[in-house]
Specification:
With 485 residues, the protein is of the alpha/beta class. It has two domains: 10-246 and 447-466, Aldehyde Dehydrogenase, Chain A, domain 1; 251-429, Aldehyde Dehydrogenase, Chain A, domain 2 (3-Layer(aba) Sandwich), CATH 3.40.309.10. The protein is built from 16 helices and 22 strands. The protein has helices spanning 42-61, 64-80, 82-93, 97-114, 153-164, 179-187, 206-212, 225-236, 260-272, 292-305, 324-339, 370-373, 389-397, 412-420, 454-459, 479-482, and strands at residues 10-12, 15-17, 22-27, 32-38, 122-126, 130-138, 141-145, 168-172, 197-199, 218-222, 241-245, 251-254, 284-288, 344-346, 360-363, 380-386, 401-402, 404-408, 426-429, 444-445, 448-449, 462-470. α3 packs across α4 (97-114) and α4 (97-114) runs parallel beside α5 (153-164). The longest helix has 20 residues, at 42-61. It is globular, with a radius of gyration of 24 Å. The mean pLDDT is 96. The protein binds nicotinamide-adenine-dinucleotide (NAD).
Length: 485
């Protein structure tokens, strides 16, 4: 196993900063506190914002090719430390190490791939008298807040485009998973000029303190819809730009013509990956009545066969719930399901210690039961029987969320027609859990505001600036063209 550091520091203005206050970090597989993370307060936040503000003009004026070169260097450093980061990830997040490493390597790839994107200059007019260019210029210091379910990848989705576009950043991880982000900050300290990337961790009060800070030009936030609304409210005070990637209650629709045996495993892992703590996991599985019993039994067998345990031990496919509040929330949903007489189909028994819950299916509960209507964000998957397409589309779309969806159908043309009727930012056909650095992820309805990834995501870290360039001597512009609205 890779050696883990015993001290963690904030990264502010290019240097490691310790704090008197600390927050305990638990291993969710055991419930034991194994490290103390530094806890930034107002003083550290002020220092970080001041550093990001000071560093901004020079970084903005650094040619984009040099900014991209720095981001590419960061990718290499992450790759070189993938084993160490993955071991730390498993310890604080709970995910099995192999999967943790895949996330770390995915983050490195995202850093690299973001440098392959270009920021366009649009020409909206080019005549004998003038040329109008629309540039996309950086905004300034960015406040980045990430959750605990994908602590490295979701940080990469923010750091890489923000810095390529010429902004500076103060990144805050979740108090439940601060260590990988702090270690990432330490590793990348020399990759960028001092103050360009700052990483601060802290308790529950730090997020609201950051979103209220007038020194930030933009907030990029990933987390729950409830918190997203608070972030939007805070941003409204001084009209900070915002990007919000929020919750989901994603539906997958399985049509009767599928090969049940061929797709069952992929469907299963599309719901339970990361112990079902994935924003775009399948959270409502609609199955056509003709194949319902067969697919339900197949999925139940997979739940009974899939090993769940400490992610640091070889052979476990899934780990614990990441934190105690989330664990209690999923237990409450299970209690509610039992109290309402729903049929629960449990998977393999799980360890008694730590935040473990067996992978559980719910056999055809009513649509208004809590386990269907709410985002569980844990291993409890409702299987829902349907009879016809209009009915299932209406039920799938009957949600305040609209993050992603999936259609499983042997007839791809038919599946595509169904996909176009789903009110979500992403729809997969005969696949799930896919994303690429070149494709925007944009939540519909209350699943988000704005988008991440692709050129569209990159442009969220910029503002438009129209530059009118004359081609005739001053004063020679025709009257009509001077008319402004
Ligand atoms: P959360 O909203 O509780 O916390 C997210 C982050 O916000 C944490 O860093 C937290 O410390 C911080 N925070 C909490 N209150 C804040 C406030 N008032 N102001 C500013 N920051 C604050 O979410 P979570 O429980 O960590 O994450 C799970 C949620 O995230 C799920 O709903 C999931 O669907 C969603 N999620 C969405 C995406 C996406 O891309 N759409 C990706 C991953 C997770």
């Amino acid at each position: 196993m890779a050696t883990l550091a015993d001290r963690y520091n904030l990264l502010i203005d290019g240097v490691a900063v310790s704090t008197a206050a600390t927050i305990p970090v638990k291993n969710p597989a055991t419930g034991e506190i194994f490290a103390q993370a530094p806890a930034a307060g107002e003083a550290e936040l002020e220092r970080a914002v001041a550093a990001a503000t000071r560093a901004f003009p020079a970084w903005r004026d650094t040619p984009i090719v040099d900014r991209k070169a720095a981001v590419k260097r960061a990718a290499k450093i992450i790759e070189d430390h993938a084993d160490e980061l993955a071991a730390l990830f498993t310890r604080e997040q709970g995910r099995p190490t192999e999967s943790a490493k895949q996330e770390v390597m995915g983050a490195a790839f995202w850093f690299k791939a973001t440098t392959w994107l270009d920021i366009p200059i649009e020409i909206t007019e080019d005549t004998d008298t003038r040329r109008i260019e629309v540039h996309h210029v950086p905004l300034g210091p960015v406040c980045a807040i990430v959750p605990w379910n994908f602590p490295v990848l979701l940080a990469a989705w923010k750091i890489a485009p923000a810095l390529v576009a010429g902004n500076t950043m103060v990144l805050k991880p979740s108090p439940f998973t601060p260590l990988t982000a702090l270690r990432l900050g330490e590793l990348l300290a020399d990759c960028f000029p001092a103050g360009v990337l700052n990483v601060i961790a802290g308790g529950d009060e730090l997020g609201p303190m950051m979103t209220a800070h007038r020194g930030f030009a933009k907030i990029t936030f990933t987390g729950s819809t409830a918190t997203g609304k608070r972030v939007m409210e805070a941003a409204s005070k001084d009209l900070k730009r915002i990007t919000l990637e929020l919750g989901g209650n994603d539906a997958a629709i399985v049509m009767p013509d599928v090969d049940v045996d061929a797709i069952a495993e992929q469907l299963f892992h599309g719901a339970f990956h990361n112990t079902a703590q994935v924003c775009v996991a399948t959270k409502r599985l609609f199955i056509h009545a003709d194949i319902y019993d067969r697919l339900r039994d197949r999925l139940h067998q997979l739940a009974k066969d899939t090993p769940v345990g400490d992610g640091a031990e070889q052979g476990n496919r899934y780990g614990p719930l990441q934190n105690e509040p989330q664990y209690r929330r999923v237990l409450a949903l299970l209690d509610d399901a039992r109290a309402n007489g729903l049929t629960l189909l449990e998977g393999r028994p799980v360890p008694k210690q730590g935040y473990f819950i067996p992978l559980t299916l719910v056999d055809n509960p009513p649509d208004d039961s809590r386990v269907v209507a709410e985002e569980a964000f844990g291993p409890i998957l409702p299987l829902l029987k349907f009879h016809d397409i209009d009915e299932v589309i209406a039920r799938a779309n009957d949600s305040d969320y609209g993050l992603s969806g999936a259609v499983w159908c042997a007839d791809v043309e038919k599946a595509t027609a169904i996909a176009h009727r789903m009110d979500t930012g992403t729809v997969w056909i005969n696949q799930n859990l896919q994303s690429t650095p070149f494709t925007p992820l944009a939540g519909a309805k209350q699943s988000g505001f704005g988008q991440e990834n692709g050129v569209a995501g990159l442009l969220e870290f910029t503002r438009s600036k129209a530059v009118y360039i004359p081609k005739v001597p001053t004063g020679a512009t025709p009257e009509a063209e001077l008319a402004a609205p």
